[in-house]
From TrEMBL:
GO MF term list: acyltransferase activity, transferring groups other than amino-acyl groups
Leader sequence residues: none
InterPro entries registered for this protein in UniProt: Acyl_CoA_acyltransferase (IPR016181), GNAT_acetyltra_N (IPR042573), GNAT_acetyltra_YdfB-like (IPR027365), GNAT_dom (IPR000182)
The N-acetyltransferase domain, residue ranges: 136-265
Gene3D superfamilies, A to Z: 3.40.630.30, GNAT acetyltransferase-like
Protein name, as recorded: GNAT family N-acetyltransferase
PROSITE patterns: GNAT (PS51186)
Length: 265
C-alpha cells in the first residue's frame, strides 16, 4: 500500500466514529478542529485513521485490516522528529506497533487523572505561588517569553503546536518562571480543545527541586479556572503524577504508551 491520505479539516467528520469514547484531550484537539493532522487509508469509507498532535500519535478504526498495518508503519514526510509517542487504546493497536517498530520501541506506563474542575483548592494554589524563592519571578507568557521558549530545545514544547507567538497568545495560555532574565521553568497549554487545555510543564534541569514547577502550574491552573478552561493533566511518569496530586488532581488509571524511534540506528 502506498502513502496514506492527509485528511482536510472539512473532512474530520468521516473519522470521528473511530475515536468514540476517546478520553485523551489531544484527540479532542484534532476532532474539535483546533490543531493536529490526520491520515486515512482512503477517503471513501476509510477503514482506519491516524491522528498526530505534536509528538503524539493516535490510531482508530479496524486494527485487523491490512490498511491498519500499513498505517502504523507510515510516517508523514511533514513529521521531522526522530521520535514519537504512540498512544494506543486497549485493543490490538499495541501489537501492530510492536511489530512495525521491532527493536525501535520502548513501552512505558502513563497515568491519567480524573477530569474534575472542582478538584482544585484556590487558596492552596496561591500558597504554592507565594512559596516561589525570591530570586525567581512568575510571568504570563507574552511574545518575548514565547520567543525565548522557542529558541531552546528544552522549552520548545511550550509553543510547539502553534503557528506563531500571535497564535499562541490568541488560543493558548502559559506562565514562565524567570531567573536573571532567562526562562527556567514553564507551564503552558501543549494543546487546546473546546473547553480546555492539555498541560505541559518543564523545568530546566539545574533549577529543579526548588518549587518552581508547582508554583508555575498553580498559576496556570488558576488562570484556567478564571477562563473556564479545564487544565487536563496526563502524567508521563510517577514524578509528574505526584506533582499533579499535590495540585489537586486525582489519579484515575495507569495505561501503556510507546516511545517510537522512527529511523533505524
Amino acid at each position: 500500500m502506498g502513502d496514506m491520505i492527509a485528511l482536510k479539516k472539512d473532512s474530520i467528520e468521516i473519522i470521528k466514529h473511530f475515536f468514540d469514547g476517546a478520553e485523551d484531550t489531544l484527540v479532542y484537539a484534532y476532532l474539535d478542529g483546533q490543531m493536529g493532522q490526520a491520515w486515512v487509508d482512503q477517503l471513501e469509507n476509510p477503514t482506519c485513521a491516524m491522528i498526530i498532535v505534536g509528538n503524539y500519535v493516535f490510531y482508530g478504526g479496524d486494527y485487523t485490516s491490512e490498511a491498519a498495518k500499513a498505517l502504523v508503519g507510515y510516517i508523514p514526510k511533514s513529521y521531522k522528529d526522530a521520535y514519537i509517542n504512540a498512544m494506543p487504546d486497549d485493543t490490538g493497536w499495541g501489537a501492530l506497533i510492536e511489530e512495525a517498530y521491532k527493536g525501535r520501541y520502548r513501552r512505558y506506563e502513563r497515568y491519567t487523572t480524573v477530569k474534575d474542575m472542582h478538584a482544585f483548592d484556590k487558596e492552596q494554589l496561591q500558597h504554592y505561588i507565594m512559596q516561589l524563592p525570591a530570586e525567581y519571578t512568575i510571568k504570563p507568557f507574552d511574545e518575548a517569553l514565547y520567543q525565548k521558549a522557542m529558541t531552546k530545545e528544552w522549552s520548545m514544547c511550550f509553543g510547539l503546536n502553534y503557528a506563531s507567538a500571535e497564535d499562541f497568545l490568541d488560543r493558548g495560555i502559559g506562565f514562565g518562571v524567570v531567573y536573571k532574565g532567562n526562562l527556567v521553568c514553564g507551564a503552558s497549554s501543549y494543546s487546546v480543545y473546546d473547553g480546555g487545555i492539555e498541560v505541559q510543564i518543564t523545568t530546566k534541569e539545574e533549577h529543579r527541586r526548588k518549587g518552581l514547577a508547582i508554583a508555575c502550574a498553580s498559576a496556570l491552573i488558576l488562570a484556567c479556572i478564571q477562563q473556564q478552561k479545564y487544565p487536563h493533566w496526563d502524567a508521563a511518569h510517577k514524578g509528574s503524577l505526584e506533582l499533579a496530586e499535590k495540585l489537586g488532581y486525582r489519579f484515575k488509571e495507569a495505561y501503556h504508551a510507546y516511545s517510537l524511534r522512527l529511523k533505524e540506528a
